[in-house]
Design a protein that fits this description.
Blueprint: E1 9-15, H1 20-30, E2 38-44, E3 49-55, H2 58-61, H3 64-67, E4 74-80, E5 95-99, E6 102-112, H4 115-124, H5 136-144, H6 150-159, E7 163-170, E8 175-179, E9 188-192, E10 195-199, H7 202-208, E11 211-215, E12 221-225, E13 228-232, E14 242-243, H8 245-250, E15 256-257, E16 260-261, H9 262-276, E17 283-286, H10 292-302, E18 310-312, H11 330-333, E19 336-338, H12 340-343, E20 347-352, H13 359-370, E21 375-380, H14 402-405, H15 408-415, E22 419-422, H16 425-430, E23 439-440, H17 442-445, H18 456-460
Parallel strand pairs: 14-23, 17-20, 20-21, 21-22
Antiparallel strand pairs: 1-4, 1-10, 2-3, 2-4, 5-6, 6-7, 7-8, 8-12, 9-10, 9-11, 12-13, 15-16, 18-19
Helix pairs in contact: 1-7, 5-6, 9-10
């Protein structure tokens, strides 16, 4: 499998449309890139909430028969890749419960840094957890609340959470959207006729023909019900910390994220990369699909022509069976194939969005050289990734991040490139135009905007004194 950070999760909600569950199904299709492990939809007919969840892609889970019972004019949906909790059906979302406040369902994009503390306290008070997901914490806090109104109980529950959370709650007659005060993960608000739509990315609005209105603001709670839309801001203000990796890799390039065009930002990344790391070459080749926008910018900035020297197989699916007699670099070759006529005898600038462990980059470089390339110069459209993320991205432990334990030249030698350069932090921040101060860059700097309640060294998962330089198979 490709050596990339795993997309976190995607959420989608609609209120006020007779085909709410079918719209949620389509919305999840558009957000499939954010999670391929499991998915689910909960719908309300104004009196009862009904759920359908399953493992796999949206197309594997839902059909006409599955959607038929999900009647009602409001629904929320979720696609998941686990960043907290095991990969099993009980962890699929939305999670639906019935408690003293009535039925409620929740889906979550993000990660709580104080999950362990909250779970320990709740367990000591008699709470029994049915999942290993941090999302369930919200429901236990909600059920225990003594607040007179469900909305106040939701706000009370969310107020105790620390970290990243873009949440959708569905009650029998209301849809509630909550975004953490730092605004780590994106959340957009749209309109479809008289209906309201809330989702992780605007590409989901485009698919169903909805109009983008604005982002759900950091620290905002939107309550959408029979009386329309109401906004409250119950949380203390906090420094904005939008995840910059959404622009680098996660989000679809046709989305607006944090108010910016993802396509434009990624093209800017390539332009700045060309300014900082020019090299004599014949052709710019992107690693598809995530390197394409940056490669366009690099080509424009350098004057070197862009050609698609690697072709991606889009129909591989999640798993494949490897032959008993192993084929060299099989896992990469089943997804990518070089175009020999473009690469042979040429000096290639290979553009990718990131290097995580380095294993896939190494295989791709060797594949391009085997196709006849004279030189391969690797250019990465972000700074070296040196720290894990704890705000909703499934990243390896720090000692598995090759840039955290090796110099750039050591990485270059390992991936067998003729040269290797990353985009600078200044170039990265320049690419997001005038809003550079709003972004979290902890995966590149190791500086975390929300402190960990427990020992930070344990979270960083790099044992002190461990020499990791011998762990790379040379």
């Amino acid at each position: 499998m490709l050596d990339k950070f795993k997309d976190e999760c995607g959420v989608f909600g609609v209120y006020g449309n007779a085909e709410a569950s079918k719209l949620a199904y389509l919305g999840l299709y558009a957000l499939q890139h954010r999670g391929q492990e499991s998915g689910g939809i909960v719908a309300s007919d104004g009196g009862t909430l009904r759920a359908a969840r399953g493992m796999g892609y949206v197309a594997d889970i839902f059909d006409e028969q599955t959607l038929a019972p999900l009647v009602g004019t409001s629904a929320i949906g979720h696609v998941r890749y686990s960043t907290a909790g095991e990969s099993r059906l009980t962890n699929a979302q939305p999670i639906l419960i019935d408690c003293v406040h009535g039925q409620i369902a929740v889906c979550h994009n993000g990660n709580l840094v104080n999950e362990r503390e909250l779970k320990d306290w709740l367990s000591s008070q008699g709470a029994i957890f049915q999942t290993s997901s941090d999302t369930e914490v919200f429901l236990h806090l909600y059920a225990r609340s003594q607040a007179a109104h469900a909305e106040d109980a939701l706000i009370e529950a969310a107020s105790q959470a620390q970290g990243a959370f873009s949440l959708l709650f569905l009650l029998k007659d209301r849809l509630v959207a909550v975004r953490d005060p730092h605004g780590f993960r994106p959340m957009a608000l749209g309109r479809l006729g008289d209906a309201w739509v809330v989702c992780s990315e605007t590409c989901a609005l485009d698919l169903i023909g909805a109009t983008y209105e604005r982002d759900v603001e950091p620290g905002e709670v939107l309550i959408i019900g029979p009386d329309g839309l109401r906004s409250v801001r119950p949380f203390p203000r906090a420094a904005l910390s939008h995840c910059i990796f959404e622009h680098v890799y996660f989000a679809r390039p046709d989305s607006l994220v944090f108010g910016e065009s993802v396509n434009q930002v990624r093209t800017n990344l390539g332009r700045y990369l060309a300014r900082e790391s020019r090299v004599a070459a014949d052709v710019v080749v992107p690693v598809p699909d995530s390197g394409v926008c940056a490669a366009v910018g690099y080509s424009e900035g350098s004057g070197i022509p862009l050609q698609f020297g690697l072709i991606r197989n889009h129909y591989v699916g999640r798993t494949f069976i490897e032959p008993q007699q192993s084929i060299r670099h099989f896992g990469v070759k089943v997804k990518l194939n070089p175009v020999r006529s473009i690469l042979q005898g040429r000096r290639v600038v290979l553009i990718d969005d990131s290097i995580v462990r380095g294993t896939t980059s190494r295989k791709i470089v060797k594949m391009i050289k085997a196709a006849g390339a004279k030189e391969v110069h690797v250019r990465i459209s972000c700074p070296p990734t040196v720290s894990p993320c704890f705000y909703g991205i499934d990243t390896p432990r720090r000692n598995d991040l090759i840039a955290a334990t090796h110099t750039i030249d050591e990485v270059r030698k390992y991936i067998d490139a003729d040269s290797l350069q990353y985009l600078s932090m200044e170039g990265l921040l320049q690419s997001v135009n005038s809003h550079r101060e709003r972004y979290c860059t902890s995966c590149y700097t190791g500086r975390y905007p929300v402190p960990f309640p427990r020992d930070e060294a344990a979270f960083l998962q790099l044992p002190l004194g461990l020499d990791t330089r011998t762990q790379i198979d040379r």
